[in-house]
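Box 3.1. Reading complex inputs
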Amino acid sequence: MSDEIYDMYASIFKALSHPTRIKIIELLATKGEMCVCNISENLKIDQPTVSKHLSILKNAGIIESKKEGLMVNYKIRMPCIVDFFRCANQVIQADINAKFALSLKKIEVMKEEK
Amino acid sequence: MSDEIYDMYASIFKALSHPTRIKIIELLATKGEMCVCNISENLKIDQPTVSKHLSILKNAGIIESKKEGLMVNYKIRMPCIVDFFRCANQVIQADINAKFALSLKKIEVMKEEK
DNA sequence: TTTTTATATGCTAATATAGGAATATAGTAA
DNA sequence: TTACTATATTCCTATATTAGCATATAAAAA
């Protein structure tokens, strides 16, 4: 694989590496399509900030936009992106389970020390 | 979803948002398991830098390590991470196709202008 | 035309990240 | 013990990213 391809992969993941942008993807995945104003309202984040995050996602090729009158509607361009989250969720669940197991172990040790 | 969960998703994607770390994942996905020295040698990146990237991937829960004597072997903890790349590849291919279509269109316009 | 509405962009300060060089740690061997 | 090997960490500097505010653009309405 060429360095350019690695950069392209990295830029897609970088676009997804911000909690606000994850929220935007989740919102669009749920509602299908939304204008900037509704996204801003729904997430309670001011319009310029939402606009900037949307342009980052768009530049990465993850979402696309369509102008309709005054409004710009955004939607997910690559539906398989939802699978990212299913996998990421497995990682997160594994972490939570590991932390839980660890705290149980600590409780056991405390009992033994008594 | 709580803000903490969004942060966890974001940190997983952030861990993948660097070309060197993509290369490491690809390497581990292919070879199964590798020590730091072999990763460093294979990617021609110096050891402290590889070590830092590995710790970022490990903290995100994407890879795990096992110490064996002097060496530390790393392997992928979540096999589904490979699906990330399959999807990301679709995004990349779509971009490449779009660019190609655009350049064809420009050629058409140039012909008409003659 | 002017005004209003929806979105995008420019600027700045604070914060985060990267790589390189040097150093620290931990296990092995002599 | 000392020497060696494989990893990890620290410090430093350069660069990148963020949110917030102000401003610019673009379409619709008056």
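In summary: The radius of gyration of chain A is 20 Å.
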